[in-house]
Amino acid sequence: MRLATRANGKPDGELLVVSADGTRCLAAGPQLPNLLSAIEDWASAQPQLEALAVQLEDGAGERLDEATLAAPMPRSWQWLDGSAFQTHADLMQIAFDTEPLNPVRPLMYQGMSDRFLGPREDVAFLDEAGGIDFEGEFGVIVDAVPMGVSPAEAMQHIRLVVQINDWSLRAYAVPEMHTGFGFILAKPACSVAPIAVTPDELGASWQDGRVCLDLQIDWNDERFGSANGREMSVGFHELVAHAATTRDLVAGTMIGSGTVANRDYAEVGSSCISERRAIEIIANGKPDTGFMHFGDTVRMEACTAEGASPFGAIDQRVVARQA
Amino acid sequence: MRLATRANGKPDGELLVVSADGTRCLAAGPQLPNLLSAIEDWASAQPQLEALAVQLEDGAGERLDEATLAAPMPRSWQWLDGSAFQTHADLMQIAFDTEPLNPVRPLMYQGMSDRFLGPREDVAFLDEAGGIDFEGEFGVIVDAVPMGVSPAEAMQHIRLVVQINDWSLRAYAVPEMHTGFGFILAKPACSVAPIAVTPDELGASWQDGRVCLDLQIDWNDERFGSANGREMSVGFHELVAHAATTRDLVAGTMIGSGTVANRDYAEVGSSCISERRAIEIIANGKPDTGFMHFGDTVRMEACTAEGASPFGAIDQRVVARQA
């Protein structure tokens, strides 16, 4: 099943079910006004949404206008971002010149969840000096998860899979890491690709809690990376169980993989600029690639071997925030 | 003005205006069903709530039953906790045996905001081995704050002041700090004292964005500390401006002071166990005080010199979470 959200002037938007070919949609209706309310009562919502998906495959629905789509869940009570790709963690240690991180636990910070930007929304920053960087990630949305679940139990709470651009301001990242308190200034609002899918929709590309798809990233219309999500050192179910060690996870909690990265980065490229800079430091002793400028664009799309695009594309421009 | 929230089975509860003497209340009514909705439209809500406060002083209203009160804002989109008391930061460095922290910026992490516990609610943990600790703090609730505000501008967005117990699990804190990513396991849900007050309600006790009140803390009915909030190295307006450096702050964002601590800790005691342990390490080379056990209670109340209690009391018991 594929879900999206139409911007309607309300903070949570209007929930849509999208046809398998991505061309048509049906509004979920007043009983399921938005994705957050649906995920809060998923046992009841899921069959209603599946019934609409059947109607769509029977030809019902209206044309889906991608330009009207917000993030599939425009806000949530909780966003926890992991860093589960060991290749990325190793390279970032070089980029940031930091100590080796504790390898025992999955890394995770809590980020801003009151607003997720839509897939085509301009992304506004006050200045370029922050070191504007994209981070291509996958993520999951869970229903209510009780404290202390096992990874196997956590897997049953993964209701939707999403694709995320976790915008980062690198100039703030290292000083904030040095505090030990995590990221506030370095992590403004994320963007989310238009379609949230149930794990079954990914077929063989959903394996052991990992999204085994290439994440194609283009910066200013040039291919920057196409790393595959399969190399997570822990699966999403393990990230969910980790997050729930000492807290109940509220329904609608979104949990991210961290930047997608592969061991053969020389071949597939990177999913963020900072990681490419680390690779340049390894090769040349110094970074060559600068961060983003106002007017730059970034496009992210995860594609199957057959060319299908389960999450749709993030395609955004970085702009100067008006005072 | 003094506001509280009555538990009514809904996640946000029912907003109440409380009389100056704390004995009576009036429901804010269906136009202002809860505090989060009021803070989202404060310009409209404030005069309506003030009119109810006038009615209360004229004798209207019903008896306030403290046992029915939830946290004044039972959930929010964002909770950012600072660490603004230098004495506490210095002592925690000894307790945790960590490096001196970057002194340039106020320390801040993003914590769990989907649930704030009520002032008399039992606080459940899976086991005692987490190192259960309380942290007495003050906090503020802001309306919508645009990215890039100055501290002076930020001051105008501070609408309410609260008193918080930021529950901490110390066994997780140091490993999580070492990741640089901040606290997930070490920081479960906070508790909040029953009354949220407008800054003017604090009179001379609100100075330069600081709550200049003694925070009296009793652990198992013995006085543990009564540090005063005036020694924040930066005021709340500066914490708000810091938080808003690269993000718009959503209305209802709650920002904490961090553990209240004073230079004369030998006299006034501490607001968390971990800090007392640091003082013991300085004195004796090792900590003597253990963390909390199931069945333990903690009471926190901020009192004026005249004995008034603007926030009311947090009075809770730690219990074992049922599987």
UniProtKB/TrEMBL annotation, chains A, B:
State the SUPFAM superfamilies in the record. FAH (SSF56529)
MF GO annotations: hydrolase activity
Highest taxon, organism lineage: Bacteria
What residue stretches are annotated with the Fumarylacetoacetase-like C-terminal domain? 80-319
One Pfam assignment: FAA_hydro_N_2
**Entry keywords, A to Z:** Hydrolase
Residues of the Fumarylacetoacetase N-terminal domain: 1-75
- According to UniProt, the name of this protein is Fumarylacetoacetate hydrolase family protein
Naturally occurring in which organism (per UniProt): Aurantiacibacter gilvus
Q: Which lineage?
A: Bacteria, Pseudomonadati, Pseudomonadota, Alphaproteobacteria, Sphingomonadales
